[in-house]
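Sample intake — Biotin carboxylase
Collected from: Halomonas beimenensis
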Amino acid sequence: MTRTNQHTPQRFDTLLVANRGEIACRVMRTARRMGLRTVAVYSDADANARHVREADEAVRLGPAAARESYLNVEAVVEAARRTGAGAIHPGYGFLSENGLFVEALDAAGITFVGPPASAIAAMGDKSAAKARMHDAGVPLVPGYHGESQDDALLRDEAERIGYPVLLKASAGGGGKGMRVVESADGFQAALDGCRRESKAAFGDDRMLIEKYLVQPRHVEVQVFCDTHGNGVYLFERDCSVQRRHQKVLEEAPAPGMTEELRREMGEAAVRAAREIGYVGAGTVEFLLDVDGSFYFMEMNTRLQVEHPVTEMITGQDLVEWQLRVAMGERLPLAQDELTITGHSFEARLYAEDPEQDFLPATGTLTRFGMDLAGAGLDPDRVRLDSGVETGDAVSMHYDPMLAKLIVHADDRTQALATLNRALAALDVRGVVTNRAFLQRLATHPAFRDANLDTRFIERNEATLFAERRHAPEEYASAALIGLHQLARECESDSPWDRHDGFRLNAPHTIRIALCDPAHAQDEDDSEAVVVVEGRRETEGSPWQLTLGGETFAATLEPLEGDAVAVTLNGHRRRLQARRDGNVVVLVDPQRETRLFWRRIDAIDHGHHEAESTLTAPMHGTVVALLVEAGARVEKGMPLMVMEAMKMEHTMTAPADGHVESFHFAAGDTVGQGDVLLEFAADE
Ligand code: ADP
């Protein structure tokens, strides 16, 4: 055991959280519940961030760059001193696995909520960690993790292990300095490349070699140890769905586990933790091969992003456990008191664009929330761990993860259905996110069948990224919902509040063009044109929609929250409907439909123009007066522009004559049927 200089645990009443975003908010939530005073720290970019707003006190660390703020050890220690914080929770990322930080806290007499520096160091180097795990009897992927880095020796080792092999930087992390080598021919080039990459990223070019498993699952075990020599495992999580070694969807328990395998993996994980004198929450990551063999990959010496799925199935609060252990208490439960109840999923919501190679996105969240009522969800089964709220800015400075959506149900099938409903209920506007991509993953048949491995996204790329064709019903629903939303925005005199069909003066028929938002620039590129006509009440459905050769008798009924029910030819569907600028977004538990929505009817004003042109065709605003009062004009000359329902309407002279007066000025609101100007035609 290597716990020498560690600070002796003692109780504390003030906790500083050296992190930001969702994890800072999540840690403070438990701390508050336990009666602790909470201190946040922030960079200039986060001066008004949610974690700062929620804390009892907050201290500025420095400029936006993480190096100068959240990674600045001295500034964090100083913030703890200023606020009298007895302990620091590091969250994940930033300083959470930094041994020097832990040593600085030990020296300052501040409790680190996490393992001793020696345990972090033991797992920091992949080769050294493997050697220790081997000694502790934890299974390793067949491979080489020796000292010698001689080219010829490494090549021989690769041969002995058998291709394909994986080259990994000993000092590596975050998937950097890692390369698959298919055969002896490519070995030298891959080795050179990996060394260069590793040297650049970690200042260290030592390599290890592993057998490359072709279809492994990523299964990790949550462990917990206290300072009294107790250690338990809180079962496993399957995190196989990854993109570029970044986890996207996680679940607990892992599908298809037997009780025996669960115990074997759990006990191996606790052995790994004990071997290095571990204290607190840790995660031992394993690769689980198709034949049921499992191999140690690495140990994360902190709380993981995906810890909530473990909390859901065990009914425990892991942050509370961490804080109790840090105060010197014993683990709240023994191994035989821990049980699994139901199934849980977590989906990570990133500000990124899956259609553009997951490029991080920025902007202001004009809306961020979850419409539980509209989706008919039980709030006890759904948890949204988020670091943002409506109105918050998403900057380029930090990790693009905005929030985590976590659900729980009695079994995997029900939990997956809940996840899909909850994803549909998630309402994020103003910033591009992977929400719809998460829905495509979570509704994918291979995911439903738990056909999981770490190459899940690559294997299913064709179906996950396929451009979707829309059914006529989707176009029809989008056309109608777009009109409904606009009418609602123009609130007064909305035709929808009356059940007698269209009352708009003109035109009686509205034409709506719809297309993929990506093609919205090309004026002519509409995929569908839907003609919407009002019908008499006696005909049952108030609307008739025509598109291509198809006709739908339609009804729209607003429900709770964002939910609406659209009935087309007697088939009623419940949807969540939103508008993002000119894009109508329809979401159901299966999919998201986004369509750029545009009215195109005013272009052909047609014959009734002469009499209707001088009264407002509908509720709207005056944009501009184009001539002076008293001006002489010729028939057809534009006189005034107004905007209504997102369209500009130009009022033109009905005959040769002159404008006697305008009744409104630019910026005025006009009601449907208002007389806009007095016109005198020549005799
Ligand atoms: P890092 O520390 O850079 O994140 P890891 O060693 O944790 O690297 O590996 C990251 C991911 O790479 C794993 O989750 C898994 O998907 C894949 N991986 C790692 N080792 C192997 C292996 N031997 N065979 C197949 N895939 C592997």
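Post-analysis note: Residues 492-507, 603-612 have pLDDT under 50 and may be disordered.
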